[in-house]
Amino acid sequence: MSDLDPHRAARLRCIAAVAMGLAHAATATAWAAPPHCKTRLLQELGWRFVPVAASKIEASTIEIHPGAPCDRADLNEAQAAGDLMVKIPSGLDGRARGRLDDTLLAHPATVCAYDFRLGEATRRAVDRLVANRGFRFSAVQVGWIGFGPTGSARDGWRPIAWFGRGYRPSGANSRAIETFYSGQVRGECGLGRQIAQYATQAELYGMDGFDAEFDADEIVIGTFNRLHSTRSILLGSSAGRFAHDGRAVAAARQGRQAFMGRPGFVFHVFDRNSLDDLNNQAENFVVYDVSAQAAAALRRHGGFEFYNRRNREIWQLARTLQPYRSKRFFERLLHERDPALRAGLPADAQRSVARLDAELADPFYRGFEIYVHKQGVKPVGFHIVRLLDRNPRTPFRIELALHNLETTLLQRYFSHRLKACERRRGP
Q1: Each residue of 287-298: b (16+ CB within 10 Å) or e?
Q2: Residue 223 exposed, middle or buried by CB count within 10 Å (0-12, 13-18, 19+)
Q3: If we measure between CA atoms, which residue out of 122, 14, 11, 71 comes closest to residue 299?
Q4: pLDDT at site 17
Q5: Which residues contact 337 (CB under 8 A, 6 or more apart)?
Q6: Do 187 and 371 meet the contact criterion of CB atoms below 8 Å apart?
Q7: CA pair distance 316, 313, nearest whole angstrom
Q8: Among 189, 196, 346, which residue's Cα sits nearest to residue 280?
Q9: pLDDT score, position 253
Q10: Dihedral angle at the C-alpha atoms of 83, 71, 189, 379, nearest 10 degrees?
Q11: Rounded Cα distance, 83 and 46, in Å
């Protein structure tokens, strides 16, 4: 891509000559599985192995062409660009092939290939959640999560805390997730984020795999504080190792696929005294998709912090329009671009609107799509504008939350696929 940093592009596209004597201990992860299962997993993820005659390649050399898969829209685009390719000498012996597979399983490009699957699973999960009109939003209420008059048992959940502040599946994990796909449930955006994260794993594994891989007490919903004291795979004792990338510096450097399915939040900068609408003091989200242009802008600016400064500039510009505010004023003015509303503003206000339009035309605000319950899937610019209406006395920031998508959950998914391969092979 022409907007990549040239030095980074060169590193990603270089041909890595891997000596056949590469020590197994040099890889980041040692997988206990038959060699053919490791190869199969790599092929499932998109790696292609191309045998090359010994006369055309040194007998002791393997050429790894990782390319730049994290910058692609999907696996098809990555493979069309020549990413995820390995050239191997004909007649490569089994021991050398095993060392190669372990090397590739620990390769950064393999993480990008996994992110393709993770992004697809996120979009499938979110699309089903959005389609369920019975999954409603509720703000301040007696119970943090509401399952209706029939109670949680009928929907496959059992309480583990008072006042609807904690639940775990009472039976199959898949049945509990299906409740949010088709049942009647109410909750706020924190619950929406949690369910989207769990449902992503269900879509990634398939429902049978999701039931087999995770214990019921690892699938806990409730207040975020409640999750910390459980075995939740999101924030509890089963979460393992977290990525600490709140300002998205690492994700921006890696590319667009490094954002897929990541949890995060948009939250107020000033203290609670500046809030007019406590129900909209923050918005929890998962990343749904990121355009190539948005990813390039994030890389160019080093992550979210550049945009958090711009959010404040947008807020300051919006304050010059306060005298003209009406219901959903900024949403109608800047997102819906209501022509009658725009035309009715005086000249100085129209100049401020033009400056706001220019700020919000940045690819990040238009092409970084997030899921927020119950707003659905919208670009992040929509949420910045919406919050100008709800809480006009404070700017808002965006950050990624703690997650383990490329650490513990990746390890568990790879192990699951390897075990499935072993079972197919039999004794």
Answers
A1: bbbbbbbbbbbb
A2: middle
A3: 71
A4: 35
A5: none
A6: no
A7: 5
A8: 189
A9: 98
A10: -140
A11: 9
**Residue 18: predicted pLDDT:** 35
**Token pair recorded at residue 80:** 């069309």
pLDDT < 50 stretches in the chain: 1-28, 427
> What's at 266, amino acid-wise?
V
Q: Tokens 């006369």 correspond to what residue? A: 55
Report how far residue 365's alpha carbon sits from residue 404's, in angstroms, rounded to the nearest whole number: 26
Are 182 and 134 a contacting pair, CB within 8 Å?
yes
Note the pLDDT tens digit of each residue in 128-167. 999 999 999 976 555 689 887 778 988 999 999 988 889 9
Cα torsion angle, 27, 31, 35, 40, sign:
negative
User: Which tokens hold the place of 165?
Assistant: 């502040």
Cβ count near 76 (within 10 Å): 11
What is the rounded distance in angstroms from the CA atom of residue 115 to the CA atom of residue 405?
Answer: 9
42: CB partners within 8 A, 6+ apart: 101, 104, 105, 110
Taking the C-alpha atoms of residue 44 and residue 416, their distance in angstroms, rounded to an integer, is 13
Chain center to CA of 186: 23
Residue 246 is classified by DSSP as T
Cis peptide before 56 (omega within 30 of 0): no
Tokens of 78: 């990555």
Distance CA 135, CA 328 (A): 24
